[in-house]
Records
---
Amino acid sequence: MSTPAEAAPLRRTLPRVTDRFALAGAVLIALIALAALLAPWIAPYPPDEVNPFDSLRAPDGAHWFGTDAAGRDVFSRVLYGGRTSLFIAVTVLAVSATAGVLLGVVAGYAGGWVRDVIMRVTDVFLAFPALLLSVALAVVLRPSVTTVIVAIAVTWWPWYARLSASMAASIATRPYVDAARCLGVPAHMIILRHVLPNSLTPVLVQVSLDAGGVILTAAALSYLGLGAQEPTAEWGLMVEQGQTLFTTNWWVVTFPGLAILLTAFAFNVLGEGLRNALDPRRIVT
Amino acid sequence: MPRYLIRRLGQALLVMAGVVALTFVITRMVPGDPAVAYAGPKATPEQLAEVRERFGLDEPLWVQLGAYVTDLLSGDWQTSLHTRRPVLEDLYHAFPASLELVGAGLVIAVVTGIPVGVLAARFKGRLPDFSVRLTSMLAVSLPVFWLALALQTVFASHLGWFPVAGEYDSALDTTSPLTLWTNITLVDALITGNWPIFTSTLSHLVLPALVVAAYPAGVIAQMVRATLIEEASQDHARMERALGFRETTILTRFALRPALNPVLSLIALVFAYAIVNGFLVEAVFNWPGLGRYAVNAISHSDTPAVAGVTLLVALVYVLANLVVDLLQGVVDPRARAR
Amino acid sequence: MRWHKRLLVAGIAGVVALAASACAGGQVRGAGGTPQPSTGQESTAATTTENTAENTAENDATFVYAPNLDVVTDWDPATSYSNEIIALANIYEGLTRYNAQTKEVDPLLATEWTSGDDGKLWTFKLRQGVKFHTGGTLDAEAAKKAIERTMKAGGGAAYIWDAVDTIETPDASTLTFKLKYAAPMDLITSSGYAAHIYDADALEENAEDVEDGKLDAGTGPYTIDTWQKGQETELTLKAFEDYWGGWQPEQYKKVAFRVTPEITTAWQLLRSGEVGFVQRLNPQLFEQAGMTEGVQAKQAPSFQNLLVLFNTADGPLKDVRIRRALQHAIDYDGLVAALKGAGQKASGLVPPGLLGHTAGLEPKQDLEKAQELLQDAGYGPDNPELKLTLTYAQGDEDQKLLVTLLTAALKQVNIDLQARAMAWNAQWDQGKKGGQDIFVMYWYPDYADPYSWFLNVFRSADDVQFNLSYLKDKEIDAAIDGLPRLTATDQLAAHQAYADLQKKIIDEQAAVAVPYVQTYQRALSADVQGYVDNPAYPNVVFFHDLKPAG
């Protein structure tokens, strides 16, 4: 994650998104989101309906993905799990991108000691690999979906801060911004009218690139028992619950794992495609 | 140069101070009484009080922070509540095993990622390129813990090609004890010529190292592909083409070298990431490294140990970045101006 | 040119990392232990061949036990009260040992014993020629010192000695207990915890070495070889050559504990022959074990049951009607079905095989009854939602199953159950402060007697330890206090007292629901014979009893 020096505004480049990968990613995401949204209507069973006398049943016509140790329908739980994962991803990215961009733009435009302070703080956070800090935080907080969101958002905002700070810094020195300043336009207006909108495009690309990572991290936290709790339908938690059954009842682990893979894959493909389309020269991570 | 050096060192120190403070705050808020964790589930109140006294758990937070920093600097990283050994000593045993695993993973990633990236660039827009992009994208999207479980189930449990878990067959400790020099089992076995342990470690290493390698291999392949395509469109490539060099030769002879630059700094970056990703892999494969230690510590509310792992990984990361920056400063004076 | 520099950078990062780890200075891994079997078999084999000719059957294999948790948290036999029983029971011995097959107490360090004065005077004759690992000889004075030290330490299960008034040593081989009230001393001395006889002076003088697992002071067949907390092979034991029970050549002289948290991994290690004993499999793997060549699957009833403790002191569950409703909401039969053999339905608080076990107390789910009771209490489907909190053990699949089923059942009667998996210490810490409505935990006795369920879990306590239903009932307390005397003097009356108490606690007070008694599903290598499960010493393998098959 580094800074594309400068990218064209979004609307001018959208028509160029013809990359087959990006398209496939967008379609996949649409399908996954649709399945998650419509889960209450398309899931054959309620996600928490137990049937202890019919537990660990192999996939068949009645249960496409089989049943888990409590006799719950794995297919229905995978569908509902999509709601949890997408909810986490959207919330984390919205929170961390908003916080990061605001801080970053202020830092980049203001420069001087403001920039130094904000950047040193982001440096501290960036010194922790994301999952490590999330784990440490999740240990402190009561494990739940909210905890996952907080723990990941706290580790993710610095990336946006750093990205938008360098964008803002380069925009702040442009002639028209100088002109606005000379004309006496107040700083917050300049930031709002000129700096912020121009920093958004790379941030949006970064958001779509990061969504896959957020979903993977959230699943990892739940897998470690630090996230969603029983009986929430969450993919990472489902893998954790089924892991001792992998050799004997493969379906309990396999389907939620594939769901994580597919969703993360769809977001990565879309993000990659968007980045290529927006800035064909800068294809490097 | 000295001014740059001082500035950069100061920055790094500041970050380290922040890292220490943040770690301390996080770990001091862990729920559950660490005294109970140390004294055991059925300890008496008197025993608990004694443990609290011994570890200063009753002092105010800022006093504890001051003591914490002083101790860290003097090499006392506290005693693990769980293993009852100094944390630094535990890390000293666990870290080399993680290095071994992550090192092996990165070697696999480089060895597969670079040629695959070259292949994709050579056949840009055609089937090889398509399949490389697809697989590398899949590799970075895989949930590591799930991949670890899947490989373990298929290749160790069902097919029996590789051992299920552990670093090497522990029975070898009695039949051919290993003399330690670097604490990295594979290296020590090699330099002392301990072949039973060497081969046992290698076979135990294959599956977890493959899992660790998945993500960096995908990233490296994508990066090599992208840089090569960029290089191949530059003037020197056009000239080489005009001179009659074949496309493959241009890519491997002329374009690859500059393309390796970003790959090498990428490796430094993914190193810390791979260590943490390795946590999940170590937990599945019972690999005796930092990850297994950390996961154990988490489930025992072992605050000092969690803090130790967090600190160590963060410090290694800061140090690696510092060294990279300083050397860049030596090589490239422009970097100092930033 | 520049990428060479990059390589250098990467190299330096590696060196920095290495420097942190380097300087092992040529130590041998696991140093401090015995590189060869402690009999010296291998070393003598090289020099004196005639020696080996006699001992061709000598067993120099290491028996490997795969526990799922770390083995040792406390090396002191006085205060130890945790998983280290699987090691300590092979290092230390008590005066007696409970025999699971005859349900009687067998002699161990005591060869015979008598009781008098209506169960208040007990005399034990000590075995002759027993040596401590520290070199001393066991006599009555040493045994007295050990028990008194344990009582004084007051930790762990020291309460088992509460009845003891004075200990006397009329001669070197006789130990006399004078009790404050009658108690079954033969059973008490067979306890897996706090009943060990050890060289108290040696423990006191070398406290630090004991804490570091470098020294033990027992009389058992094995002694500590190496201990590396947190390592995979955490602990190894070696034979104590002067063991009073003697050594046959085929017995295992070395034992290792290889900590393997993942059940699947443990099972694979057993199948590949890397470990000899796995203490617990899940039902699916256990079924597989039964069909696998080279593996014996062993199923045995345990003394361990699951307790679902309701908060009788605070919150909505203060209302006994809601507690009863919860008892009725648990799907007992469904849970046992989903456990697939890992547990059997419980009948009351006392598991089968123990004094006071009462048949006919099996609970049954009855959601209509639950709904009725809730309606009475102002909750249920047509009333406001009731929110309840529950805590249970992190990583325990069986407890998780209970939680899943209970959450689903309670949802039907408009109760929102918020369950939280916690590490034991955090769960317990919160429990001691009364911080939840429902507390789920396992309980098992310290010696083969049901007393501890009642004394520890249901006798009222101002300073809550395990009384996690916070029950305070004078009548119940008085009945509990009378139990040891009845057990020592009149077993029939004791049985009746236990039966009455269970009715009071479960039916009248509704302080607890007991869904099932755990069934141990273990597996061991088919190459081993002599293993007998003894539920009085949970998960313990008495290695001295084992020998290779064939």
---
Amino acid sequence: MQSVRKFWTKESCTGKPREKNCIRDSCTNNSYVRNSCVRNSWFRNATIGISCFFTFLLFLAVGTLLFVLKPSELFSALMSEEMLYSMELSVLTASISTFSVMCCSIPTAYALSRFSFPGKSLVKTILGLPMAFPELVLGLALLLLFGQGFLGPFLETFGIRVPFSKLGIVVAQFFIAFPYAVRVIYSTFEDINPRYEQVSRSFGYGEFETFRNVTLPMARSGLFASAVITFARCIGAFGAVLILAGGSYMHTEVLPVTLYLNISYGNLEMAITSGVLLMLIAFLAILSFERFEGGRL
Amino acid sequence: MSFLEVRDLHLDVGGFELTGMGLNAEKGDYVALTGPSGSGKSLLLETVIGFYAPKKGSIFLEGRDITALPPDKRQISIVYQDHMLFPHMDVFENIAYALRKKLRDKKQIESEVQQIAGILGIDGLLHRKPTTLSGGEKQRAALARSLVVRPKLLLLDEPFSALDMRNRENMREVLKKAIREYRTTVLQVTHDFDDIWSLANRVVIIRQGEVMQEGDPESVFRQPSPDFVADFLGTNVLKGKVRALEGKLTVLEILDRKRDSNLEQDESKDRNLNQSQKQTQSQSFEIYSADPAEPGEEVSISIRPEEIILARGAVESSARNTLKGIVTGISKKEHLVLVEMEIGNSGSEDSSSGNTGQGNSETGISELKAVVTPTSCELLDLGIGKEIYAVFKAANARIIR
């Protein structure tokens, strides 16, 4: 409210046309400020109108997806062998990916938030890249790295094959979700005053002990939120998964791939069902994200 | 070598820097660090405790060089302004957490926690989460957590500045008691003069990463260096003797402080003693204070410059104190004006007999500083040499012991 008031006071006092009528005292007067908030301005109405209109369109689109199928059709598609396979594989790969993403992003985010080291800004930039990067290009890059690059043949000597395998799904999901997770956890750590850690250090606890006893528990809501977002990103990852793992029927078929394969065969029921599933997961994820992100302990 | 010795400390942390800071403290000292904000006081504390590594210089504690030691090996505790209690632990856990590295025995930990909680008056709050505590309670809990480990050195970074007046006084009392009990050496950063008067036995004034002045509070505030006054408004300190009690008010007789200090410098003390005592008596004036005191007690009175109202004539008001004086200096300070004046006996019945012998040209017997806005400075038509009345409430004349 404070900032709103400030904004309005400033706006109405410094705006050129109004300056003449504006008596100094009345600008700082609260009733004047409140009046200018109530008054209908075209700008206020336009912004509110636009936000409502597009929210409504989005709502309509989601609603259509939900109600276009009869419950019986939805149920039979849900129970089909392909859908069950796809669901199981999605949950399995996304869980593994989420776990590995969390394991790597917590230390990464902590290092970025607390320490300064040479090349830190470069690391930050590269980590941010995949967010603006088209997923397909990322998939292609990964395919080249794990296929023809030096890493592929090297891993192959240990019998590990990444391209066109279930492992490929996990790898693709990992690289898609990692930057997001780092970003969320980074901001969580940034919100924790380092003085908490310093106080703990002063009682004789080492760096790692302090991290375990103070930082992690204080960050837990942020960590939970980031795990949820990571899981949703992993389940929904498509482009990179398709390129790296290939979208082969009942082999590397995760939910987005099911949607894609079935829509190309013209099998709408299956496509819509996987769409509904993906949306439900996203919805639950956002709901719990809103609930936990920045939540007080 | 002193108990704590900071030598030639150099450090630059984006915007704040220390340039050749040096500091000594003996065991049991209570050192108050003060100075304008951004002068590097907090940075000094965080370097002493080991959160920052200095670029140059060294820190010795009990004769041992701790400059390169990590904070967990130094046995120094810190209390910040915003308490920094771990929000995921209750008060008991917070205090016990500090002890767990030192003690293994659960019962022992519990008794230690109970002991410090009793001293600081938080025994009823041990099972509450920090978020449910009031500001004063949080600060007590933080203090308990820092003291319970019996640190060699306790650092306080403006620990009371987020508290209201009453809580602050309360905290000071509690802190006094606790550090007596735990025999801790303390280094406190503060902006509050009351902290310095009631707690510290040494004051260090810091400006732009350097020590400007240091010594016991009395001498530092009596003869502040000119830069210090310009940059950092001091409080008025007058020395007086309690003459009588009038209801709830204490009547103080302000002694001639110039005579006192001249006397100290005078080589022939004995000869002048009688004379000066006579002069003091004849040149005194009275101040009413709301703080309690015993008759005959010698005390100092502190009046903040911003609590003094200036008037052109003797006004009748609810404020008990009206002192007549002569303006001796006017200086602008950002958006305020600092007015310095000499206060004398308003009727000046002894004006002919005062100030003989010593060759002292000033007419007043005490200096007083007041802060006014530029507008009121204009309205009052203030000028050097003009007569002015300083008006302030008895509640604002604080007794310092």
